[in-house]
Amino acid sequence: MAKELCLSGKNVTKIFGFGDKKTIAVNHVDFNFHVGEFVSIVGESGSGKTTLAKMLLGLIHESEGEISFLGKPRDIKGRKQKREYWKDIQAIFQDPFSSYNVFHKIDAVLLDCIKMRGGKNLPHDKKVEMMTEACSFVNLKFEELTNKYPFELSGGQMQRLMIARIFLLKPKILLADEPTSMIDACSRATILDMLQNLRNEIGMTIIFITHDIGLAYYISDTVYIMEKGNIVEYGPAEQVILHPSADYTKRLINDVPKIHEEWDLSTV
Amino acid sequence: MKHILSQIFHTGKFTMGFCIFMGILLLMVFYPLINPGDPLKIVSIGTFARPGTYISLYDAVDSRLNTLKLDEAPANRLESVLKMEDRVKMVMWFEAVEIPIGHLNIHDTEALLALWEEHYDSTVRPEGMTKADRNYFQRLDESLNRVLVTKEKILATRDASTAELQEIRAIEDTDYVNLKNVANVKRLPLGTDNFGRDVLKELVAAIRTSLVIGLIAGTIATLIGLTLGLISGFIGGIVDDIIMFVTNIFTVIPAFVLLILISYSIGQDQRGPTTVAVVIGMTAWVWTARAVRSQVISLRNRDHVNLSKLSGHNLFLIIVTDILPYIASYVVMALILQISGAILAEAQLSMLGLGPKTTEVPTLGLMMNWSMLYTAHLNGYWWAYFPVLLTIALISFSLNLMNTGLDQVFNPTLRD
Predict the structure, then answer these.
(1) For the CA atoms of chain B, what is the radius of gyration?
(2) Which residues of B have a CB under 8 Å from any CB of A?
């Protein structure tokens, strides 16, 4: 899989606060994500996964280090550059209930995406057609959703609508920040399946952030393990999870409850 | 929307505050229709006419007379002359000249008068009684005689050339006029103030001015506070530092001191109600800014704001569509409190004589100021200041009640 680099970072660091209150959330992290890859970043709560994700998205600035996008150092200082950057990288957040502006209807959310792709002046019929297609991709019916508010949907439906949004936007990179942690197991499988479909159809790079190493093993090509702001281990999923080298990874694997074995709590 | 409205009106506090406030508003709108005219017109010569109905005596004697034989008329007449303090004095006179009064009930008018007629002698000089007291008893005796002996009264005009009196009519004690036949009857439900202006009419006009001042000042304060709070909370960084620095300076200096200084430096001639309202608004925004800022800080890291950023929305659009609607209910509550605070601030300022120009408009504060300057509160002219006080209290009370009611709806932890 010798593929070109999509997003890479060198010495990426984020420090919050000053002096005594200084917290190093992400500590001199290096990474290389390739085009079309399904990357998982695994770590427990507080390991800096979400901070790293926000830096990748450009929502917060890195304190140190450099992030490169498509081989070139990324430049998102200006508003215009940011807009351009966000055409290429999009996100799905953890909590579908707080991801939507409750005052906007579902149509507005989807129309926004069409507008962002430069489809502002398309005829109304065409827009409806695009929205219907996006909704049917995630097994939702646009006719049932139109003129509704996001909070009228269930959590799983909301998260699926998020994916429909990504389908419309067709970014190069999708950053999914624990998209399945707030929904039940059945919906989880559907969502993961849809993410896989997205990658297969559009050739999207997916950066999947999770605390569940089992899940990461199931879906990803490459796995990065984060502990307290550091990347302790990375590599192909099979290698990292079946033959872990770092203690932290072994612990994470041990912490996964298994159905036919007694759960080993000694490492917790 | 409908649901929220029904929820708001379901809280007793809001409904009660709303009703009181609406009552005041209705009075403000409809009273000028019933009683039109300039609220600052001077209607009475002399200060502080008591509340009541004033009948033109001049017109009354020309009206059609009816003869009513009323048994209680003499007693009523006597009652209006013979006050309680007169009765006490009469008993004191009896004691001074050592007349045994036995078991005289002071409320028994007939017995008291009988004793008085029997024994009173203006020539007697009881020991220790001053001349003033003796004169008082003479006057009392005369007025009692006037009432008891119901002689007819003659109404006459004076001839211009000869200065002779010509009788027009004799008025008996049984003559009555119907109030409806009297051409001029003036009702002054709250009397007149120190200038002789109708207090109720002035009060209604004052409510209007004060509410306008409150609305202008409250809106200005809320707008400034909201804008600064939104900018400083959402943008953060150095902008936040600068804005919070200014805000902290304003917090440290008490707003009222600032208000006094600014009002004083503007000068009496320049201070219209609008100017005062603007000045109040400019000094009252501080806590709104702080509160809005903290709300925005908690909102700006929410996922829906991040999503909006990712959707390429610009800063202004994010603030207006993703932040503002979430704090709208809070802002409305802040606005209500600001209005109530501005009305009180105007009253305080006017009581110090730093309110709007004193002769052109009535405001609640100015009415208080004038009645205080003319010592209405020391002389018992309650109608000049108490209704004003009550109105200020009611406006402030109703606005605060509405605020608490809204708080109960929008702040789930307070719901009962």
Answers:
(1) 33
(2) 302-304, 306-314, 321-322, 325
Q: Which residue has the higher pLDDT, B7 or B21?
A: B21
Fold for the domain defined by A5-254: Rossmann fold (3.40.50)
Tell me what pLDDT residue A1 has.
Answer: 46
Are residues B304 and A101, on separate chains, in Cβ contact within 8 Å? yes
**In chain A, which residue ranges form alpha helices assigned H by DSSP?**
49-57, 79-88, 96-99, 106-116, 124-137, 142-145, 155-169, 185-202, 213-219, 237-242, 247-254
Are B110 and B242 contained in the same domain? no
| Minimal C-alpha gap between A137 and chain B (Å) | 20
Closest chain B C-alpha to A113 CA, distance in angstroms? 7
B105 shares its domain with B34:
no
- Break chain B down into helix, strand, coil percent, rounded to 5: 65, 5, 25
pTM higher than 0.90: no
Name the residue ranges covered by the structural domains of chain A: 5-254
Question: Which among B302, B311, B313 has CB closest to A98?
Answer: B302
Instruction: For residue B319, give the CATH number of its domain.
Output: 1.10.3720.10
Convert the pLDDT of each residue in B83-114 to its tens digit: 888 888 888 888 888 887 777 777 777 788 88
Q: Are residues B121 and B213 in the same domain?
A: no
Residues B368 and B409 reside in one and the same domain: yes
Q: For residues A164 and B278, what is the distance between their CA atoms, to the nearest angstrom?
A: 51
Residue B141 φ then ψ, to 5°: -65, -40
The ipTM estimated for the assembled molecules is 0.86
How many CB pairs below 8 A link A and B?
45
